[in-house]
Structure formats: C-alpha cells, structure tokens
Amino acid sequence: MIKVRHILLAFLVAFIVAARINVSIGEWYATQVYPFLSAALSFLVSWIPFSMTEVLIICAIGLIIFILTKGILNKNKVWKIALRETELIAWIVIWLYLGWGMNYFRVSIYSRANIERQAYDEEVFKKFISDYADSLNSAYTQDTVALAIFEDDIKSIYSSVPEDLGLSMPKSWQHPKQLLFNRLYTSVGVGGYIGPFFCETHINADLLPAQRPFSYAHELSHLLGVSNEDEANFWAYEICRRSDIPAVRYSGYYSLLPYVLSNAAKLLTEEEYKTFVGTIKTEILEQLVDQKSFWKSKYNKILGKIQSAVYDSMLKANKISSGTKNYMQVIDLIIAFEYHRE
Fold first, then answer.
1. Which of 286, 277, 246 is nearest to 139 (CA)?
2. Are 90 and 13 within 8 A, CB to CB?
C-alpha cells in the first residue's frame, strides 16, 4: 500500500534528478535554499563539539543491521526486508543531497565569475609560476597560529567575497567539529571533509601547523556551497593569501606548492623544472619533504586505495568527470582568474 511518505520520497527523488539535469535548479537551490538550510542544520548541532555526521552514519549502519536481523528472526520474505532496507537508504541519500549534495549540480565558478577555461599558454604558465615562487618565498614564516584566531580571520575574509560569485556567508556558530575516528582519516590521508547531513566542517587533528589554515579554508568553502575540489582549493588559496596573519598567508601559498610542482613537472622540460624548483627557498622544500614523510609514515596503503577509489567514483557520479584529479585543476582556475578575468 502506497503511503504519504512514499509519495514524498518519489517527489524528492524527482526533484534531485531534475536538479542534476537542469543546472538552473541546482543554482537556485545553492543560492536561494542552501544558505538558509545550512545555517539551520549547523545551528541545530552547533552545541555538540563532535561530529554528528559520524554519529548519524554509525546509527544508520546499526539500523540497517537491525532491520535485517529483525526480518530474518521474524521470517519475513526477502523482498520485504530488501524493500525496507532500500527505503531507509533512500531517505539517507535524499538527506545527503538536500542537506548539501545538490551543490554538485550548480553552475560552475567559471560561469559565475564570467571567465572561460583557457587553453594551455606556455608564456602565461611560466609567468604564473615565477610570480608564485616569489610570493611563496616572501610569505615564508615559521610562525604558527591557533585555530580560534585563523578561523575568525578566514571567516571575515570570506564574508567580503562578492555576492555574484555564489557563496553563502559563514555563521558565527559554525566551527570545525572533532572527528571521532581521527586516526582512520589520517591513515587514508584525509585532512578534512564536509559533513553533508548537518553542514559541519571537520579538520584532521594531525594536520601540521602550515596545513591547518588552508585546510580549514578549503572545508569552509564546501560549507559555503562549493562542491568542486578545484574551486575549494582555489578559494582556500585566495582567502589565505589575503590574510594579514603571516602564518595564514604562508599556509595559502605553501599548501598550493604540491599542485604547482605537479603541473610544472608535466608542462616544463626537465631542465626548466629543475630551474624553477631552484628558485624556491630550501627551507620550504625541506618542509614539504618532511610533510610527505610524516603522512607517508601514517598512511595505510590498502585503506587509502579503497578510500581514493570510492571518493573518485563518488565525484564522477556527481558530474565531476575528472574525479579526484579535480584537485589538481586548481592551477587552471587560478590562472584563469588572475590573467583572463574580464
């Protein structure tokens, strides 16, 4: 027998599918619905210091097991058990999309900022990395900064982003939540993530000091309505480098370095690449090597490969065709903004 909840379920599924097909619906959600919904959801759990997203996932897994066990003990037909499990999972997925995930279906930042994706231009790329190396070297500092200080600073800068770029405004009650399974995230190299069910940001406690402001700015951009990883990296870089706090500014330039080096290694000749690396302060390069060694010592290859494959598939399923490679495309976005924006 069809019940009211089944009709509602079908309607919500249809709405989400429509948003996936029509970006105007996704953009309407991101700019007209999500800012209020995210503020309400995050406020609802703001008094709880740990991740309610993780709590919800644990409860959902427990409920799935409970329904299966109860069905078997009551000798229910297999199709009835499967139907109940499917309905539960469907409601969880709908909550995920309505709470945050529909941001995947919005207009791209290129359209919102009135810029176009640029074909590779060797001269422009070389100018960018030269300017970047100068800025990175100038920003170098060994200072550190506490979360409470750089959180307020980063929120303040985000609040000045022009409205036409489509970001929500950060709220005073939105703070990073403690991870219940921090060691697990460290073992797969995850520095943080957005909790879609309650619009929570999460920052790995094991992040090194130079990584923390950039990682927070990255995850905060997701909370403000950004879905693509290249855009999240772009905002983290742009916001941090505009800070008046030396440690925050350096985190912005320093955290971009792996992406710059990766792109440079692919686009420059071997000799040009060596010359470019030679323009970067030795202390910075040594810091990057130490950082890689730190995370490598904690990385679990099996769990890491599983997590990477799952996340790659999830991104591709949500209209990010490049999957996890999307992180690397931040350089294209920065160059488009800095050298080609009208």
1. 246
2. yes
